[in-house]
Amino acid sequence: MRLTPGTGQETDLDRVDLFDLDLYSSGDPHRVWDVMRAEAPLHHQVLPDGREFWSVTRYDDVCRVLGDHRFFTSERGTVVTHLGVDDVAAGTLLTSTDPPRHSQVRRAIGTMLTARAVAPWEDRIRAAVGRFLEPALDGGVFDLAERALRLPMVVAGPVLGIPEPDWDKLVQLTAMVTAPSDPHFQLGNEASTLAISHHELVTYVTEWVRARRSTGGRDGSLLDHLMNVSVGGVPLTDEEIALDGYSILLGANVTTPHTVSGTVLALIEHPEQFAKVKADPTLVPNLVEEGLRWTSAACNFMRYAVGDTPIGGGVVPARGAVVAWIGSANRDESQFPDPHEFDVTRNAGRQIAFGFGPHYCIGAPLARLTLRIFFGELLRRFGSVELAGEPEHLRSYFIAGMTHLPVVAKK
After folding, report:
1. Is residue 4 part of a domain?
2. What percentage of the chain carries pLDDT values higher than 90?
């Protein structure tokens, strides 16, 4: 997805197709969202197969859809790739469960992922980032986007308790789930790619749990912690552990790699911003928040209206699917002046790249720590980063990212 919008594009909202994959791989969705925020803050689209959905693009409306489960439920599905098919894991999978059950399970799991809990991992993460950047030290071409797909697993693998020989397989499977239409990850068609990757990921975690139970070992990992979680005095079932482990794996491998590559591209396109943060490393946390806003890697989430619900100047009918466009909300002029300017001095703390409300990303503290360390190390080691070829954007209407970003880093 182009992160810096073009100019002069006319948008006919009656003909806009938000499921057009070309719009994201080679088009300019930000200009479309600009017009939608101004002229159609509640937009209705019917797909050729009869499925329909309503879109909200303004910051306040997106936050309401994501934040208020009384009107917009998660228990029929939360990602647009599942539009029209109710989630069979609703009420069991954490991301497809509403409060109060969601809050109870999340609270029990989240104790290992608070900012205080992840702080002791800083040295381990810094060492992993150092190894990640090492191949760029010789000044050769370095495909940042391709390599960045593995970065979250390098960090989160030990935390989750997943052995290193399995990391590459799991990275591939999570990419298949989140971008099933991209030719780099597709097996057959979109439906088969989703089915295969979902089955293999859930099977992997299920077998991990079964093996751990049979040996009785404990390693203090997050998956190990899931096996000891109780809600209301009742332990999680093996199915809940498998599905929540699957969800955590997906979360670990979605935001961080695409935020890394998208933010580095922004720094290449805006060398004066690179110079600012290079001269003042205290700006690194600002850079991370602006990078999260700018890239909005998980660019949308879906909910279903519980009843007829007024929003955005219109009404979503009961059981209607609502897509909340995070990528648009993070460029809403009412919240972020000059939203299409990348500015490392901006106070972007209100960005919602990690979501909003009850389903705010449980791994956000770990992702933020990883991003701060990554950009701190990048700026410490290199004096500039330059493009060494054309970026290749992910073919996905769910994830805004890149499959290739060839760069040369200079000391």
Report:
1. no
2. 71
The pLDDT tens digits for 275-285 are: 999 999 999 99
Report the domain count for the chain: 1
pLDDT digits (tens, 9 = 90+) for 373-386: 999 999 999 999 99
Which residue from 265, 293, 281 is spatially nearest to 375, judged by alpha carbons? 281
Q: What is the CATH number of the domain that holds 288?
A: 1.10.630.10
What pLDDT score does 357 carry? 96
Within-domain flag for 15: no
Taking the C-alpha atoms of residue 244 and residue 226, their distance in angstroms, rounded to an integer, is: 8
pLDDT of res. 217: 64
Q: How far is CA 370 from the centre of its chain?
A: 14
Determine the pLDDT at residue 298. Answer: 95
Q: Is the predicted pLDDT of residue 221 greater than 90, yes or no?
A: no
Structural domain range at position 84: 21-410
Q: How far apart are CA 290 and CA 343, in angstroms?
A: 7
At 252, the pLDDT band (50, 70, 90 cuts) reads confident
Summarised one tens digit per residue, pLDDT across range 383-397 is: 999 999 999 999 999
Please state, as a whole number, how many other Cβ atoms lie within 10 Å of the Cβ of residue 12. Answer: 8
**Domain assignment present for 7:** no
